[in-house]
Amino acid sequence: MVWPNRPASSRHPLQPATATPMPVHAPHLLPAPPKPHCHAAALRFTVAASAATPAPRKAVIVGGGLAGLAAATHLTSLSVPFTLVEASDRLGGRVATDVVDGYRLDRGFQIFLTAYPECRRVLDFPALRLRPFYPGALVFAGAGEPFYLLSDPFRLPLRSLSAVLSPVGTLPDKVLVGLTRLRAAATPDDAILSAPETTTAAHLLRLGFSPSIVERFLRPFLAGIFFDPALDTSSRLFELVFKRLALGDNALPEEGIGAIASQLAARLPAGSVRLSSRAAAIDPSGGVTLDTGETIPGELGVIVAVEQPEAEKLLPQLSSMIPEKPKKKSERSTVCLYFSADRALVQDPILLLNGSGKGIVNNMFFATNVAPSYAPPGKVLVSVSLVGSFAGRDDAELADEVVRELGGWFGAGEVASWTHLRTYRIGFAQPDQTPPTTPAGRDPRVGDGLYVCGDHWCSATFDGALVSGRRAAEALAKDRGLPS
Predict the structure, then answer these.
(1) What is the overall mean pLDDT for the chain?
(2) Under a CB-based contact definition with an 8 Å cutoff, are residues 480 and 470 in contact?
(3) How many whole angstroms separate alpha carbon 173 and alpha carbon 211?
(4) Which of 121, 169, 301, 473 is the most buried (most CB within 10 A)?
(5) Which stretches make up the Amine oxidase domain (predicted)?
(6) Given a cut of 60, is residue 222 above it in pLDDT?
């Protein structure tokens, strides 16, 4: 859901806190064992033997986000040696969790969909200890009105009866939601990915949804997924995500969304990762040159697994390989604010949407209702998401406005005691997914020995990143005649 270079984070100046990144349990981050003592004769023999044995040919992976980790784990499974270079001091990219005063803060609003097929193939779900959301949402329709519940009629038919007469959409809308769900669940992925393509907004209109349910429910719900309030996102991606929503749960790992990256990182060989190593130039025949001037050879090839803006800086030819699109004003940015509270004002593990058409809040939820481990015992974590960059407003100003706005949802007295923990500004939350798109993924080969992967090279989903990373590794192995 959320998909930044490294987002700047800040905190209300009156509320200091210390942050520690969620540990990445990977063997390559363990300290090196002490060097053994040896005699001079043995040392001469070791040096001579080493000189006679050529260093193994390696691949280089640039970027340690989900796509880079997927490529690395696949190369590991094929016993292909590699070096992964990551510009930051941690792995995971946008899929990260910080620990702040005992609170687990995901870097931006992110929800994991358990029906992603590549995720089910690659990840150990039981080890993630996934905690599901309620299958539906509460809609804030305006001050003085109750929250209206919209839930999955196939999973919770009795509770869904209360939504039939709600003003969020018409009765035909609610029937149409159920029919759309059934159709999406039964449609093969290949058919979705090859269907005629338009924008999501046009697609919803063509399906027959009324302006009421679009504005009050579908627009804020989908804006939280695609960071695109105009709903210019591809209809193919909408159908693909809607299918995953129909077939599985929305969930959070017990230790935060960063646990997904940690699980992949733990599988990598010792010594295969170099953190705080930023790539400055790429030459498949010469390897990867870091900003320090050091060159890392990549005799087997180079896989570029960084976000789209950085990928196009390193490989300018990429911009000519992607179909040109009309310029859109819609941003793919988001701001996520976290607050500490003493009690949850809603008891269900459910997403709350702003269906009023007013204010800056798009959605919010009480994270500890989903996973109590997100806060210290006896405390509640509140997550609030805005869509857009809000570049002209500082963190303290935004936090104050959010509290005032949510006071209109719950009552000013109920939110006045909330403590602002941290604000995450995700400038690049997702790549452009406006038509035309190729959500099935592009060929990872972009040159001799040069491969690209990432959610911008496939679909802007967890699954898209993992699939593209695997395909890049498979292509490299095949091109080099390595066993696959």
Answers:
(1) 87
(2) no
(3) 10
(4) 473
(5) 66-476
(6) yes
